[in-house]
Amino acid sequence: MEKLIRFLVEAIVDYPQDIQIDAHTIDGGSVTYRLYVHPDDVGKVIGRQGRIVKSLRQILAASAHRQGLRVQLEIEAKR
Amino acid sequence: MKSVVTTGRTVEEAVTSALVKLGVTRSQAKVRIISEPVKGILGWIGGRPAQVEVSIEEKPDEVVLRLMRNLFDRLSMTAVVRCSYHSESDVNELMINVEAEEDVLPYLIGHHGNTLDALRNWLTLAYNKQMRDTSFSTVKINMDIGNYREKRKQKLIHLADIAAEKATHLKKVIFLEPMVAVDRKLIHEHFQNRSDIRTESEGKEPNRRIKIIPVDHD
After folding, report:
1. Is the ipTM of this complex over 0.90?
2. Where is the protein found, in the record's own terms (chain A) (predicted)?
3. If I label B179, which of A16, B29, B106, B111 is the partner at 20 to 30 A Cα–Cα?
4. Which residue of chain B is at minimal alpha-carbon distance from A65?
5. What are phi and psi of B19, to 5 degrees?
6. Helix H segments across chain B?
7. How many CB pairs under 8 A join A and B?
């Protein structure tokens, strides 16, 4: 899943080297991925009205669903 | 984009060695000069060779296919992706058709085509990022998976035809179910040339719906 997130995000940001992903497993088998990107890339990952992050979550959910998993994706600016 | 950086005594020499490495001809490549050669005082001493970056100019369909292939790798799904231009003369519109096994199609399409839209959305962004400074930077990307869009289109038109039949028969205004803008547009266009009915959209999003109005309604 992390590889998929990295691939999806790398393809659309200006600073791919700044991408960092943390995974937190919550009870019940749901995994929250926290994605850190360069501050200038935050807008690129979220998009107007959250359109882009919505698409990313949709693709992740599809992949997770097929494997019987649940995932969450949160975006944060890298300090 | 595939690219190499090479050096040479002259710019031309650097470019030539890059082309050899990439295995392409000059017309297929894009050259960026990183630094011009500087002559040293005694032959090479203090001199600097020419440095160039040569990249292969990929065509839109090649870029799209590469992105999609990598994506399906990461998704651990096998799919056949075809990419065609809207027409031979118009390379600014691409149609991407994805075929996959019956059991993975629902995941790729999603509820009401949500995942399909998300994939197209991502692909467009990734494409634009990659092709920003090339001659193919403005391309419209359409996508269909397992003929979902095409089938849905047929179904919508079929439903609209039934409603139109009813409208002309009863000479009454008939409302269709609320639909998204692209679907409404499809139906408006479908009835565009009919002289016995006209169509209008009424209501506020997301409940905007099409009204089929027979010309001789009561």
Report:
1. yes
2. Cytoplasm
3. B106
4. B107
5. -65, -40
6. 11-22, 60-74, 105-109, 114-131, 148-170, 181-191
7. 54
State the architecture of B150-214 in CATH terms: 2-Layer Sandwich (3.30)
Q: Where are the domains of chain B?
A: 3-56, 60-146, 150-214
Q: Does B108 sit within 8 Å of A56, measured CB to CB? A: no
Domains and CATH numbers, chain A: 2-77 (3.30.300.20)
CATH domain B3-56 topology? Defensin A-like (3.30.30)
The pTM score is: 0.79
- Token pair for A11: 């393809």
Cβ B121–A55 below 8 Å, yes or no?
Answer: yes
Q: How far is A5 from chain B (nearest CA, A)?
A: 9
**Tens of pLDDT, residue by residue, chain B (218 residues):** 678 899 888 899 999 999 898 888 887 788 888 888 887 766 666 778 889 998 887 888 899 999 999 999 999 999 999 999 887 777 788 999 999 999 999 999 999 899 999 999 999 999 999 888 777 888 899 999 999 999 999 999 999 999 999 999 999 999 999 998 888 999 999 999 999 999 999 999 889 999 999 998 76
Collapsing DSSP states into helix, strand and coil, what is residue B209? strand
The answer to whether residue B129 neighbours chain A at the CB level (below 8 Å) is yes
Shortest Cα distance, chain A CAs vs residue B101, angstroms: 13
**Pairing of β B3-8 and β B29-35:** unpaired
CB contact under 8 Å between A62 and B126, yes or no, is no
Q: Is A8 exposed, middle or buried (0-12, 13-18, 19+ CB in 10 A)?
A: buried
Contact B129 A11 (CB under 8 A): yes
The partner residue sitting opposite A55, judged by closest CB among B71, B74, B122, is B122
